[in-house]
Amino acid sequence: MDICPKCGLPKQACVCEEIAKSEQRIQVTTIKKKFGKIVTMVSGIEKGIDIKKIARELKEQLGCGGTIKDNVIELQGDHRRKIKPILVSLGFSENTIII
Fold this sequence. Notes:
With 99 residues, the protein is an alpha+beta fold. Helices cover 29% and strands 24% of the residues. It has helices at residues 16-22, 51-62, 80-89, and strands at 26-32, 38-43, 66-69, 72-76, 97-98. Strands 3-4-2-1-5 form a 5-stranded mixed beta sheet, with helices on one face.
């Protein structure tokens, strides 16, 4: 049985990621890239959270492409209205998401 080095609980019962999610200050912005394309930027996700898993889930639920650059998730298109409920369903606090 594997034990988490941070909280000392078994890996299946580890709560480190849930605690880290409640402490995040996530900022959602849009920028205009080449050829007038809009990109939604999700920043503020710090260490202790699997950013690849979050990005994969966002891309799947929004039906868009995207990438991770410098700990910032870039999603193709303007998703400011749709992204907050998805982040809340992933375990982030609604009060810490700034759009």
